[in-house]
Amino acid sequence: MQSRQERTHKKSDGAPGSRSRSRVRKGCVPVARPHITKFDRTLERIRRFRDARNWMQFHSPKNLACSVVIEAAELLEHFQWKTNKESSEHAKKRRREISAEIADVAIYLIELADNLGIDFMDAIDQKLNDNEQKYPVARAKNTAAKYTELK
119 near 113, Cβ under 8 Å? Predict the structure, then answer.
């Protein structure tokens, strides 16, 4: 079974309806196709942004993971020391700024997964499958307990 990344990076050999199964070389931007998803377009845009600036040399897994944490801390800073009510009110007032911080976290996460060859959407689906097993509704509903403590 092909990964999402392999399906997304098919190139046409010119014959109508034919596609090779080769992946686009690293640093090359695939041609937009009508069946491409919004996520795929966003991933391609992240790659183009990075590659136009020759930043891949700085985007090691460690550096990207650090960047995720740094940007998540900037997001958290919006809510630090606020009550639940205050944080909800703040989120409404500062929606644009908070949206930008969420985007920063997501961009680094998406690029980290892409650089490691991890299909982002498949990883999320798998994690949700795992969590559905760990947290069955009958035992997890209305509790914040960790799965190891569910009765």
Answer: yes
pTM: 0.73
Strand partners, 11: 20
CA-wise closest residue to 62 among 54, 70, 51, 50: 70
- Could you tell me the mean pLDDT of each successive run of 10 residues in the chain, 151 residues long? 44 40 53 74 97 98 98 98 98 98 98 97 96 95 94 83
CA–CA separation, 130 and 14 (whole Å): 42
> Residue 4 is which amino acid?
R
Of 70, 36, 142, which is closest to residue 24 (Cα–Cα)?
36
Cβ(146)–Cβ(131) below 8 Å: no
